[in-house]
Amino acid sequence: MSKSAIIEILKRVYDPEIGENIVDLDMVKEVKVDEKNGFVKIKIALTVPECPLTQKIKKDVSSSLESLGIKKVEIEFTSMSQEERQALLEKLRSLRARREPTQAESGKRAYQGSPVALLPKGGIHNIIAVVSGKGGVGKSTISALIAVELKRRGFRVGVMDADVTGPSIPKLFGLTQRLEVNKDGNKLLPATTKSGIKVVSMNLILNEQTEAAIWRGPIVSGVIRQFFTDVEWGELDYLVVDLPPGTSDAPLTVFQSIPLDGVIVVTSPQELARVIVAKAVNMAKKLNAPLLGLVENMAYTKCTECGSTIFIFGKPKGEEAAKEYAVPYLGELPLDPLLVELCDSGRIEEYQATELSRVVDRIGEVRVELYQLKAPKVR
Ligand code: ADP
């Protein structure tokens, strides 16, 4: 009953979601052998606390040890630290790079399951789309704040402003420089914000911002597709895509061709009719990507004099709506005059959206960063 034999046998236990064995994933933190009493103690660090697949891992560990004749096993579960998770991501990234299907293969595979061929992701590991049922609820603001928070956590982040007919992302980051093309003259280079977030937006291409507003669906679709295929994004951990509100059919087809890893729905209490929330949720479902949850923006504000909570647009309905549509509720963001000021002066990166940091935590919990890093299933 040597320790190395135990570790060897544990290589047969796979993390069901990631598809790699728990030893290679550095999840096995300790193996203690009590030879005298035939007893083994194992400590396993989960990628996220209370991983729903704990029971499966436990069963697999026990039965693999049983094959070595070890019956008395104690398994302790802990969770990985932020650093350990980061190291795991790096490891998975290199594994994934080695196994990345070719462009032709990924197209073929997508055609089998969906009517739209998925575009290859290149060096982008996770694509998160942000949608809303109508304009003005703060979808762009939330997209930008999610990007800022991800950047603060050390990820390589990009924002694609796909709201082509009402692009507002560059203004939030104070970007005005026109985009340039690469040396070969065949790809656009994204702009870079102060903290290093890459941004592509129609506002950084057109001289007249009003031009895009009158475009018809097919042109809009073409532009969005090009934002994905003809931009030199490089390696990104996250690409946050700010979608047009209440997406119509033409761009929707394009979004179905972008391999999204998750969709976040933004609502606000002004969206009086639930119908609008329903529309956003249904659209998100049509995107064939995991619906990560719903965020309610401008849910309340704080009185600057006494600090009391004021529900300007009536009682927040996000949580209720989320329940009604069986979507996870990711929290709420207050209406904050400081945020308006920072957005208007292009300094959104200075805003500390603590509530949204909770949202990004939750994104981590539902394993967004791991979705695309899952090893291809070997059958
Ligand atoms: P959308 O992308 O849904 O059209 P925007 O993100 O452009 O909406 O936001 C609309 C307006 O509301 C902007 O002027 C923005 O600064 C403001 N805004 C958005 N969220 C908040 C908030 N939580 N507090 C204060 N103002 C906000």
TrEMBL record:
Q: What sequence ranges are listed for the domain MIP18 family-like?
A: 3-76
Cited SUPFAM superfamilies = Fe-S cluster assembly (FSCA) domain-like, P-loop containing nucleoside triphosphate hydrolases
**Full protein name:** Iron-sulfur cluster carrier protein
The family classification in the record reads: Belongs to the Mrp/NBP35 ATP-binding proteins family.
Q: What biological-process terms (Gene Ontology) are attached?
A: iron-sulfur cluster assembly
The record's section on Gene3D superfamilies has: Fe-S cluster assembly (FSCA) (3.30.300.130), P-loop containing nucleotide triphosphate hydrolases (3.40.50.300)
Subunit composition and interactions: Homodimer.
Source organism per UniProt = Candidatus Marsarchaeota G1 archaeon BE_D
